[in-house]
Amino acid sequence: MDDSEPAATITPCPDGPLLVRGSFEILAGPGREDTVTDRGVVALCRCGKSGIPPLCDGSHRLVGFRAPAPPPPE
Ligand code: FES
């Protein structure tokens, strides 16, 4: 990895999860399994309805979650 590259990037999906790419660790909390990745991709729930938080399980589609993509940079 180039030193100018971030260790991880986060991309909000329109009406869906946050895609986290890169090398990072998710400390999920008591009773939940931590997630460690090395240049992988993980989808984090932002609708609050996932059955496997903090990961997305696709439930956002069932509940009609809406979060439009941010406008493109000018
Ligand atoms: S964003 Fe996919 S289940 Fe919440």
UniProtKB/TrEMBL annotation:
Superkingdom of origin: Bacteria
Molecular function (Gene Ontology), one example: metal ion binding
Domain Iron-binding zinc finger CDGSH type: 25-66
Annotated keywords: 2Fe-2S, Iron, Iron-sulfur, Metal-binding
Keyword hit for Transcription regulation: no
CC annotations in GO: cytoplasm
KW Iron-sulfur (keyword) present: yes
Signal peptide extent: none
Name the record gives this protein: CDGSH iron-sulfur domain-containing protein
Taxonomy of the source species: Bacteria, Bacillati, Actinomycetota, Actinomycetes, Micrococcales
